[in-house]
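[job 4471] stage=fold_predict status=RUNNING
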Amino acid sequence: MAEDANARPPHSPRTVGIIQHFERQVRLHTDALNEDVQVTNERIGQLETAQIVTNNTLTTLERTVAATNTSLAAIIERLDRMDQVGREGRQQGDDDGYGSIAGLEVDDASHNMPHSPRNKGIIQHFVRLVKTHTEGLDNDMQVTNEKMGQLEATQIDTNTKLANVEMTVAHIDKSLVALLRRFDEMHANTNGGRDEGAEGNWDDYVADTEQDDQEAPNRRRLRTNRRGMGGFL
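[job 4471] inference complete, writing structure tokens
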């Protein structure tokens, strides 16, 4: 018998309706939040994939620049060897033709001569090509870095929005728990008359916030009729 006395009485039909109303509202809001979270996670995945592609592109550009610099150094070295061979050939011709000390003097002077005009033109041509290509790569790297910065900023903003959504869901859960606790207290502390008055107030609230509740207008008309007839019905 003591257990029956301490047992919580069941909710009244009106209180059950109020609880169900709030549960529907919270469920709709939670479903929308879950959809937002799913879209946010998909967006984060897309950003991560784009960032991986950007990093790979940046690595490829850096390797291309390094390979270009290596090729330029090899070209210049090859041209130096070609120029050296040409000078040695000219020296050999001078020795065969004259066999004099003058030829040696010319050879010594040729070692200190700069590149020939032809070789100098070739070197300048390749330097211009490499410079143009390198400047293009630098521009690509700058655009890539800017794009990476934008992706990082977007990802930070997305993470912030996701955190706000999670906080909102947690707040809704707490509000629902508080509402259910309040309904339990109202049901435990009200009798028939006071409970009827409380139900009337909730009728007005539900009618304003939920259009699919068709019983609320009928209850309001019945309550109005009771008041107009002095509460006999």
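[job 4471] summary: Residues 97-111, 228-233 have pLDDT under 50 and may be disordered.
[job 4471] exit 0
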